[in-house]
C-alpha cells in the first residue's frame, strides 16, 4: 500500500505543479495586460498632465476675474439699494409735505369760499331788503293813489266775477 500512497502522492504533486504553472501563466498574462493598461494610463495621464495646467490656469483666471466682478456687482447692488432707500425716503417725505400743503390749501380755499358765499348771501339779503322795501312802498303809494283817483272820479270797480258766485254756492 505504500506504493499506492506514493502514486497518489505523486499524482497530487503533479496536479499541484500543473496548477502552479497554470497559475503562473495566468499571472503572467494578467501582468502583461496590467502593464499595457498602465502604459496606456501613463499616456493618458501624460496628456492630461500636459493639458491640465493650462486648463487649471484658465479656470483660476476665470474664477479670480469672476470673483472680482461678483464682488464689484455685490458692492454696486448694495450701493443701489442704499440709494433707492434714500430716494424712497425722500420721495415719501416730499409726498407727505405735498399732501400737507394740499390739505392746508384746501382748508384755506374752503374757508375763502365759505366767506365769499356768506358775503354774497348777506349782500343779497341786504339788496333784497333795501331794494324791495322801496319798491313795495312805491307800489303801495301807487295803489293808494289809484284808489284815491278811482274814488275821486267815482269809478266803480269791476263787478264780481261769476266764479266768485259759484264758489259761494259750494260753501
Give the topology, please.
Blueprint: H1 2-152, H2 162-170
Describe this entry's structure for a reader:
The protein has one domain. It is 94% helix and 0% strand. It contains two helices and no strands. The protein has helices spanning 2-152, 162-170. It is rod-shaped, with a radius of gyration of 64 Å. The termini are far apart.
Q: How many discrete structural domains?
A: 1
Number of helices, counting only DSSP H or I runs of 4 residues or more: 2
What is the element string, with H for helices and E for strands? HH
Strand coverage percent: under 5%
Cα(first) to Cα(last) distance is 174 Å
Alpha-carbon Rg, integer: 64 Å
Looking at the structure, what is the overall shape? rod-shaped
Oligomer state of the chains in this structure: single chain
Largest sheet: none
Rounded average pLDDT = 84
Give the proportion of residues in helices: over 70%
Q: Which structural class is indicated by helix and strand composition?
A: mainly alpha
Number of strands: 0
Sequence stretches where pLDDT stays below 50 over 5 or more residues: none
Amino acid at each position: 500500500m505504500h506504493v499506492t500512497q506514493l502514486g497518489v502522492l505523486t499524482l497530487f504533486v503533479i496536479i499541484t505543479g500543473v496548477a502552479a504553472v497554470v497559475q503562473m501563466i495566468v499571472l503572467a498574462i494578467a501582468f502583461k495586460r496590467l502593464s499595457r493598461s498602465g502604459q496606456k494610463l501613463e499616456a493618458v495621464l501624460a496628456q492630461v498632465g500636459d493639458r491640465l495646467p493650462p486648463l487649471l490656469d484658465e479656470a483660476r483666471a476665470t474664477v479670480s476675474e469672476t470673483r472680482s466682478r461678483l464682488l464689484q456687482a455685490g458692492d454696486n447692488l448694495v450701493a443701489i439699494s442704499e440709494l433707492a432707500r434714500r430716494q424712497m425716503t425722500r420721495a415719501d417725505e416730499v409726498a407727505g409735505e405735498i399732501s400737507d400743503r394740499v390739505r392746508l390749501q384746501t382748508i384755506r380755499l374752503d374757508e375763502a369760499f365759505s366767506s365769499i358765499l356768506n358775503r354774497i348771501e348777506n349782500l343779497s339779503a341786504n339788496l333784497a331788503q333795501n331794494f324791495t322795501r322801496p319798491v313795495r312802498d312805491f307800489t303801495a303809494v301807487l295803489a293808494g293813489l289809484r284808489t284815491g283817483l278811482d274814488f275821486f272820479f267815482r269809478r266803480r270797480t269791476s263787478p264780481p266775477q261769476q266764479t266768485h258766485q259759484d264758489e259761494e254756492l259750494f260753501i
